[in-house]
Amino acid sequence: MLSQLLVMFGFFALVLVALFWINRAVVLFDRLIGDGQSALVFLEFTALGLPKLIVTVLPIATFAASVYVTNRMSGESELTVLQAAGSGPWRLARPVFVFGLCVAAMMTVLSHFLVPMAQGQLKQREAEISRNLTARLLTEGTFLHPSDDVTFYTRAIDSDGVLRDVFLSDRRKADEGVIYTAAEAYLARNGDDTTLIMLNGMAQRLDTETNRLATAKFRDFSFDISPLVSSGDAIDLSVSAMVTPDLLWDWDGVAAATDTSPGVVAEELHGRFAQPLFCLVAAMIGFATLILGGFSRFGVWREAVIAFGLLIAIDGLRGTMVVQIREAAALWPLAYLPSLIGAMLTLAMLWQAAHPRWIRRRLRGKKAAT
């Protein structure tokens, strides 16, 4: 049973990761390639984003594997044979519990080390690319977007760095839009400032309030593009990019260094400990709900829906606890409340499956007493 759970977990995890990756890769590909980056940069960013994506799908894959294997064994009467041979619900739950521990161990390594390290490397690479003027502006024959309100185009780039036939659209002001065109231009650096100097061109300014267009020709014109391209070497610290040992002590100091609140630090830290427990609970809830329903010729789809509803409710409660902890760091024990509720529900369902006639005996005892 454990081997079947691990095989189906691998299958569901692979399928879910592929689906989520395709959805994310389309947006990432459009953003990076549209900004003039190479396919290698796209693959690097994709690889750095995979650990966080895997953490997202692990609880779902764990629950799906538990429900699928339990349903198949129930449909093929394997559970019925095992129960007839003397294996009770507690004994049948052992391989599911071990399976949940295996997934929890994987989640622990990912959430405490791999995901923060990947997020830190990703932020560093994003900062490096934002400082790379060649990738941001010096790409010929392509309309580039250094920011949402700026569009840049150059037809060709000479070997000496001169840009030919330049087009620049500046829409950062709400009340006006400006289009600059020039026969040639070049970039000039002055310390941390970067300036685009355009020669022999024209500026067209449209006042959106009066809908009037004003044009002016110029021999040379300088355009400060420093706000569009980050030139600083410092990379802002982030709580999500710090490994767990760095978050264990001095929450106030970490919050000050990352420009956040101690509640965010507490939620990030204890959320990493609670995630593996949630994977274990997801596996046990899927099994316990289906084993409680027993064998049926019509399948266990009703129990599967109930199990899915319980998992959604527990996960929704976890989202509510996140908000509470971020507001007050002292409420960090609430991070473990959803997993605790799920564990109590699992124990109650397994106990009921092991004592199926308990309710009937209680009802009979009450009738006899009356």
In words, what does this structure look like?
The chain has 370 residues and is an alpha+beta fold. It contains ten helices and six strands. The chain folds into two domains: 2-130 and 237-369, no CATH class; 133-228, no CATH class. Helices cover 59% and strands 17% of the residues. The protein is elongated. The protein starts with a helix and ends with a helix.
Topology of this protein?
Blueprint: H1 2-34, H2 39-75, H3 78-84, H4 89-130, H5 133-136, E1 144-147, E2 150-157, E3 163-170, E4 176-190, E5 193-207, E6 212-224, H6 251-258, H7 262-293, H8 301-327, H9 337-354, H10 358-369
Antiparallel strand pairs: 1-2, 2-3, 3-4, 4-5, 5-6
**Largest pleated sheet:** 6 strands, antiparallel
- Total of DSSP H or I helical runs spanning 4+ residues: 10
Q: Would you report the number of β strands? A: 6
Which of globular, elongated, flat, extended, rod-shaped describes the shape? elongated
* Ends distance: 47 Å
H-E string: HHHHHEEEEEEHHHHH
Q: Low-confidence segments, ≥5 residues, pLDDT <50?
A: 230-234
Brief synopsis:
The chain is of the alpha+beta class and 370 residues long.
Feature tags:
single chain, 370 residues, alpha+beta, 2 domains, six-stranded antiparallel beta sheet, 10 helices, elongated
